[in-house]
Specification:
It is a single chain. By secondary structure, the protein is an alpha+beta fold. It is built from 13 helices and 25 strands. Strands 3, 4, 5, 6, 7 and 8 form a 6-stranded mixed β-sheet that branches. Strands 11, 12, 13, 14, 15 and 18 form a 6-stranded antiparallel β-sheet that branches. Strands 20-22-23-25-24 form a 5-stranded mixed β-sheet. Strand 16 and strand 17 form a beta hairpin. The longest helix is centred in the middle third of the chain and has 24 residues. The termini are far apart. 35% of the residues are buried.
Length: 531
């Protein structure tokens, strides 16, 4: 099933997802095996993505499954990156080195078959709920978030701001129609404008002897010189080529005007020009390497000065940096990059990217519909991240952990609405009990994400803390879907390790089973600090 392009629809009849850059594929999971077929041509992709064979585990509990999804490769900002994906699509038999260097994930888009029966006639909202019931823990797969009762235009602005592909709106009552392009799915791809300076052009011969076309090599001026950002062929129709022809001939040059040469494949037969001509292009997003993605020629700006081609890029673009001219500067820059990556890994270990994405998008949605609520949620988010990212946090108190869990639940309640209920019973005298930092919040997040999120009617998360002799007994429970105990324990290993390091290894218990909810119990001494 394919989407039609159009304006973002509005109203409560629609659910919204982000558009993810990737390779559309169908995954057939049965009998411990995975078969991957290209979504467009039904060509087999199984051998090209051997790491996705692990998805077969999903069929162990749900029987034969047919999943519609996208094969993606993530960039350093955790966004699907089409350029990196091309390293995998260019070969049908990837080497072990390539598998390690460019791993793929399977983003779940839809569900065509489950529990022994087709799901094509189920409404989209129900298919989405069934997808949420799949336990993806430890698998090379993700279920991207979707949003209800949300302003689609705000979603589009978020997509533009963060360099995402766009927004896909789906009618909640729509059935899955294989092979059809349906008005029940509407895809909106944001485009932005950028002035550029032409630094060269290439003639392109048309197959069959048709009119010759051209490609423009363009850049933006910076203190160190003209920075190459794109090779453009789209939008250069005959009138545009005629308008450019005489002007380009008058500026012919023997020198490459870019401060760093464009890629070799972009310079075959190139004819350099003095960088004076300014034009306007539209584009989908800036790539992490500072190049434009899906750039299209709009028009020549004959009276514009090259200095007007300034950059106002979204998240991920680095511009205007002074040149690095010495080995010591390069070493310092390399060290800074390594430190930044280590910091990102540490932050990801403390806060789930899944939650961050959902929280920020929920806040953005409220900006238009309820600004006061948006400000309130933004305050909760700021306090939550300030607590989670603080340094020197080996030990804290039950009261501080409870306050942070309350912030998390306030943000999730804004997303789930009436589907999320919370009960609390905490003895006041226990709030000063010492706990390892970030003991409670991961357990609460696990209850929401694995217990409540996939349940169509939602559920209740309970938090209790009661004295029992010299000990404080803490429980985090939910009445949701439940899951395999071994797999659940794997998801909260970090909490177990924190407790073990603090000397509480004997008092961590998990009670769960599919369909019965989950309860995690911790017993810690009332006296004595965690270390």
């Amino acid at each position: 099933m394919q989407a039609r392009e159009g304006e973002v629809p509005s109203g409560s009849a629609w659910g919204f997802e982000f558009v993810w850059d990737g390779l559309r594929a169908l995954a057939y999971l049965r009998g411990g095996r995975v078969q991957l077929l290209s979504g467009g041509s039904a060509r087999s992709l199984t051998a090209s993505y051997p790491e996705l064979s692990a998805l077969a585990a999903l069929a162990d509990t749900r029987g034969e499954l047919v999943l519609d999804g996208k094969i993606v490769v993530l960039d350093d900002l955790d966004r699907p990156d089409a350029a990196r994906l091309r390293q995998r699509t260019s070969t049908s038999r990837p080497s072990p080195a390539l598998l390690g260097r460019v791993p793929v994930l399977f983003y779940l888009v839809d569900l065509l078959h489950a529990d022994g029966r087709p799901t094509l006639s189920l409404p989209y909202q129900r298919r989405r709920e069934l997808l949420a019931e799949l336990d993806l823990t430890g698998l090379p797969a993700r279920l991207p978030p979707y949003f209800l009762d949300t302003d689609g235009q705000t979603m589009l602005e978020v997509a533009q701001r963060h360099g995402l592909g766009g927004v896909l709106a789906k009618r909640l009552d729509s059935h899955y129609q294989p092979g059809r392009r349906s008005r029940a799915w509407v895809q909106t791809l944001p485009r932005q404008l950028q002035r550029v300076v032409i630094g060269g052009w290439q003639p392109i011969a048309r197959a069959g002897g048709g009119d010759e076309s051209v490609a423009l090599l363009v850049g933006v001026p910076e203190p160190a010189g003209l920075r190459y950002i794109a090779r453009i062929t789209a939008g250069l129709d005959p009138p545009a080529r005629r308008e450019l022809a005489g002007r380009l001939d008058a500026l012919v040059s023997s020198c490459d005007p870019f401060r760093e040469p464009p890629p070799d494949q972009h310079t075959l037969g190139v004819r350099w020009v003095t960088p004076r001509l300014v034009g306007e292009v539209s584009y989908r997003r800036w790539e992490i390497d500072g190049r434009l993605r899906h750039a299209r020629w709009i028009a020549l700006c004959p009276d514009a000065h090259p200095a007007t081609a300034t950059v106002h890029g979204p998240l991920g673009l680095m511009t205007g940096e002074p040149p690095v001219s010495s080995s010591s500067e390069l070493a310092a820059l390399d060290q800074a990059v390594r430190l930044a990556k280590a910091e990102v890994r540490a932050l990801r270990a403390q806060i789930s990217p899944h939650f961050l994405y959902n929280a920020l998008t929920t806040i953005a949605a409220y900006v238009r519909t309820d600004p006061a609520k948006a400000r309130e949620l933004l305050g909760e988010f700021a306090e939550y991240t300030r607590y989670a990212f603080r340094s020197g946090s080996a030990a804290t108190t039950l009261g501080a952990e409870l306050a942070n869990a309350e912030r998390y639940l306030a943000l999730e309640a804004a997303r789930f609405g009436e589907r999320l209920a919370v009960t609390r019973h905490v003895a006041p005298e226990l709030r000063d009990v010492s706990l390892p930092f970030l003991t409670l919040q991961p357990l609460v997040e696990n209850a929401v994400r694995h217990g409540i999120e996939g349940a169509p009617r939602g559920g209740t998360v309970g938090i209790t803390a009661e004295p029992d002799g010299p000990d404080c007994v803490i429980t985090v429970s939910d009445d949701g879907l439940g899951m395999d105990p071994d797999r659940l324990t794997e998801t909260i290993t970090d909490v177990r390790e924190r407790l073990s390091a603090a000397g509480h290894s004997r008092v961590f218990r998990v009670d769960t089973a599919p369909g019965t909810g989950t309860t995690v119990t911790i017993r810690v001494p009332i006296r004595g600090p965690a270390t």
